[in-house]
Amino acid sequence: MLALAVEAGYEGTTMADVARVSGLPVGSVYWHFESKEQLFAALIEYCFDIWKKDHELPDNRAVLRRSIGESAARSVDPKNTKEAFWVIALLFALEKRLEGNRARQKYLQIREEMFELMVAQVERTMPPGALAREPQLARKVVTLGRALTDGFYIAAAAGDDIDFAEMADLSATAMEALVERYAGESAPAAARAERR
Fold this sequence. Notes:
Helices cover 79% and strands 0% of the residues. By secondary structure, it is mostly helical. Helix 1 (2-12) runs parallel beside helix 6, helix 7 packs across helix 9 and helix 9 (137-157) packs antiparallel against helix 10 (164-186). The longest helix is centred in the middle third of the chain and has 24 residues, at 102-125. It is elongated, with a radius of gyration of 20 Å. The chain starts with a helix and ends with a helix.
């Protein structure tokens, strides 16, 4: 079912196609899901559960390697269920015509939950001095990381020739430098002068 949703997209997926792929009568599909919106909302929730297990990582570099170096690169394969979330999610993020759609609302709710999970994870790994100087630093780093990741998913879908692993490391290095800068700026002036 995920492969069908990724390949055909929201507009191209019909309940008859779902029945055909699942081997169930159309009536049974409607018994489980009253509409395509409900079906896609359930798919997004299912994919989010997979994402949560797959993104319990020790630091920001590992998260970026996973989301850019691996996920974005493999997201164009409709059979890759771990990355199906991103393909389906981007459809709902970009398609404004689906403003009141239940599946889109579910995606936006989950996107916010993902953001908060990542903020908590990134904040745990930051030097206390950096957070003392900029209490919102974890949120800013996650915002930047999410924008990069979303961009790389679009680049993968567009067929851009990119070394995603290299881009993940480059992104992580830039973010680590940013955090180090804030940590360094939080040190007392005498200690900063001593380091120079």
